[in-house]
Design goal:
homodimer; 210 residues; mainly alpha; Arc Repressor Mutant, subunit A; Tetracycline Repressor, domain 2; 9 helices; elongated; DNA-binding; HTH_TetR (chains A, B); transcription regulation (chains A, B)
Chain lengths: 210, 210
DNA sequence: TAACCTACCAAACACTTGTTAGGGAAGGAG
DNA sequence: CTCCTTCCCTAACAAGTGTTTGGTAGGTTA
């Protein structure tokens, strides 16, 4: 294993992520990854010291980038509705960029979480939950979101609707990430039922808690 | 392997489903299943002829029951909105009853679909998609659902939001399946954004295509 | 030229995997 | 009692698993 020459590492990680996402982590053999990369299984161990560390590197790379964008949104001081819109849009952009990593995270994180090595998945999920819950509660208090819904249920609802998209989304499809985000947000916020009369909606909260 | 005495089979399938759901199918060893059942690995092969056939039986059992309920709903001649509501409610009831099987289906069906043995997963998914798409289009034509949304995107949206609930739902929690279905439907249909003024909504479509 | 580094191969290692074969204990049926 | 069925155990098998070790072709540096 070597630390320099990060380009080849990156290539191999990309193909590994692709195979992991398609077959599942446990069902993927290192020989299968090596095949996809055009080398032999043992050669992978020149670059990485275990199959698990490949997975680790894929997930941390994804989460680091995601949190970079999330933190920027959360620090921007937007209103609740705008924060949700920005978070969802960033999420779909992340699915567009790191589809394989997102699919792996979606599929394996629940089991990996129990291993100490992947404890950061738990931390990330809790930060994630706090950020969303706080935003939703802020929106309820400001009168932007409905108060008659279980906030935690709403959180899971919004979170899941966003991330499961990684299971069917294919980059280069007919809809851009931004367009998908727009339609998803429209469904989540306004609902799929038709309004009897089109209604004005102000983006500024009616009341504001300081 | 024996065909009679279906009670023990059923017990073993239930524990197998639980382990499959928790660890993933490929990551689950037959020894792990046997441990959970309190017997040894080889003894499982008195009841079943392979690990794969256990999975098969779990999934077909789940799908058969699900389609029994779905067909009843689809044959009831309900309006589009009521059909969606009934389908979603039945889905959450199914998650309540067969949580493990649903979780397995959710996690493994995409990979299993490619094997000929599990081709029925494809058929089921296509029936599923047709039923939902038809109902949504019927609703759009009747003026019950919004016409400005991509119907296929809406379908995936509704489908995913329902079934991913299997990944966090635990029977005996504080919300009943019906209550979760009610809140989910409220979010999907009306949206999480607050209406500026509460609006009357008639359950009967404004216009009706015969 | 000589020494060195990078990226790989070839071959094996210890271990786990799903599965099978043969046997045996318990209990009901005749 | 004997026979038979049910349900499980013991012990092993072959194939596949992640990983290691030693070697080597080709380029770069001195």
């Amino acid at each position: 294993m070597v630390s320099a020459a990060p380009e080849r590492r990156h290539e191999l990680l990309a193909t590994a992520a692709e195979v992991f996402a398609a077959q599942g982590y446990n069902a993927t053999t290192v020989r299968r990854i090596a095949d996809a990369a055009g080398i032999l299984a043992g050669s992978l161990y020149y670059h990485f010291d275990s199959k698990e560390s490949m997975l680790d590197e894929i997930l941390t790379g994804f989460l680091d980038e995601l949190w970079g964008r999330y933190d920027a949104v959360l620090a921007a001081g937007l209103g609740p509705r705008e924060t949700i819109e920005a978070l969802v849009t960033e999420s779909f952009r992340e699915i567009d960029r790191h589809r394989a990593a997102v699919a792996i995270y979606q599929k394996e994180s629940r089991q990996l979480r129990e291993q100490p090595r992947f404890g950061y998945l738990d931390d990330s999920q809790q930060r994630f939950e706090r950020a969303w819950l706080r935003t939703l509660e802020r929106g309820v208090a400001a009168g932007v979101f409905r108060a008659d819904l279980d906030v935690r249920l709403t959180y899971r609802f919004v979170r899941d609707t966003v991330w499961v998209a990684a299971s069917w989304y294919r980059p280069g499809g007919q809809h851009s990430p931004e367009e998908i985000a727009r339609q998803y947000l429209s469904m989540v916020l306004e609902g799929v039922a038709l309004r009897t009369r089109h209604e004005r909606r102000d983006t500024n909260p009616v009341t504001r808690t300081p």
